[in-house]
Write a structure and sequence with these properties.
Length: about 375
């Protein structure tokens, strides 16, 4: 196979189907509203609780969460995470919430693995704290029969690129403040251009990358996000088929290949000395990436370099949202050690990725034994 083909992993394909909003109402049991991005869903959720003037956030998560909170002028602090699933450490939440008297807590179930939401929900109820269930990365994951994203006082899902429900844009949220309604506006043409960028530069990149003209769409897309406020946008008609198609594919098993490659990776590499595989501690996950925590930063950087040299896409995890790590011991240890690998519905690519990781492990073993013989 042409190894260059592996430089980019493409999102799962889907067939368009009109979105069934009643399905969303049924599965969440909530009054779902549309927002054009997860970050805007969070903005609306926070705005629906005017009493929130302080919030606890995970130390490890995507930084758009923090910038959304900052833009609203809400004070914030951070709780520590569990290194085995990169989700909230409940003892850290309890400890910091009691110290700070915070009004809200955001819990993100990272990489499709459900956080300990039943216990956190109980704690928040007992302390009268607003719980926001951020399921941007975990649509479809469940705890018992309850969907991640439906715990606490508000929750949201995202359809941005890189999510388990990867599309060009879009999100759904709910809040117990049912009086809160977005004053919607339409930017349908902008949504269309953002979709075309996704279509040509991600979904079908291998078909179209020889046509450089499509790259222009990327720059236009970036400019839209910079200069135009899309936070009150309503869904455009054409998007109902796209988001509906993604949901349909999730439900009828078209994306099950991800869990099956994840499991294969786990069986093949668990217990090695160089990295630990991030895996669900509870419930039913919806893993859409393979994520590892390396034993140190050098190994993380080496494995990324090794993969990139073999034309495989691999990337670092998120940067921590804070550098004040005195009371965040686990975050301090895993900082810079996380590596993400995409999963694609392509046996040849995935086997090649697995073989490259095997080679990396052998190469490191060789280095260590050489050093000990010197
Ligand atoms: C946990 C989490 N919450 C919220 C968001 C924001 O979602 P969006 O990119 O759709 O704005 C992200 C995005 O990466 C995320 O990972």
């Amino acid at each position: 196979m042409n190894k260059k083909e592996i430089r980019i992993f493409t999102p799962p394909k889907f067939v368009q189907k009109k979105i069934d909003f009643s399905y969303l109402y049924r599965t969440t049991n909530q009054q779902i509203q549309y927002a054009s991005k997860g970050r805007f869903a969070l903005k609306h959720i926070l705005s629906s609780f005017p009493e929130i003037d302080s919030i606890l956030l995970p130390a490890y998560a995507c930084n758009i969460i923090l910038s959304t909170v900052k833009k609203l002028g809400i004070a914030y602090d951070f709780y520590d995470i569990d290194s085995s699933d990169l989700n909230a450490d409940i003892s850290s939440i309890i400890n910091i919430a009691e110290k700070t008297g915070v009004k809200a807590i955001l819990v993100a179930s990272m990489y499709g693995n459900p956080a300990d939401l039943f216990k956190i929900e109980q704690f928040c109820i007992s302390k009268n704290i607003v719980l926001i269930d951020d399921a941007a990365q975990s649509f479809g994951a469940k705890l018992d029969d309850r969907h991640v994203g439906t715990f606490g006082n508000a929750g949201f899902f995202s359809f941005s690129p890189g999510k388990p429900t990867a599309g060009h844009m879009g999100a759904f949220f709910w809040t117990t403040n049912i009086l809160y309604k977005i004053n919607y506006v339409h930017h349908n043409l902008i949504h269309k251009i953002i979709y075309l960028d996704y279509y040509f530069n991600r979904l079908n990149i291998y078909k179209y990358r020889k046509y450089h003209i499509f790259k222009l769409l990327r720059y236009i897309n970036i400019a839209f996000f910079k200069f135009i406020d899309l936070s009150n946008d309503n869904i455009a008609n054409f998007e109902k088929g796209i988001l509906g198609g993604i949901l349909e594919s999730m439900n009828n098993g078209d994306f099950d290949f991800r869990q099956s490659f994840f499991n294969k990776f786990y069986v093949r590499f668990e217990g090695n000395d160089l990295f630990q595989i991030v895996k669900a501690k509870r419930g039913i996950p919806n893993n859409h990436k393979i994520v590892i925590v390396c034993s140190d930063k050098t190994i993380a950087n080496d494995i990324i370099d090794f993969c990139l040299k073999k034309n495989i896409y691999a990337s670092n995890g998120y940067a921590l949202l804070t550098d004040k790590l005195d009371y965040l011991p686990v975050s301090r240890i895993i900082d810079g050690c996380i590596v993400e690998f995409p999963i694609e519905d392509d046996v040849v690519k995935m086997n090649y990725l697995f073989d490259v990781i095997d080679k990396f492990i052998q190469f490191n073993d060789l280095k260590i034994s050489k050093r000990s013989n010197e």
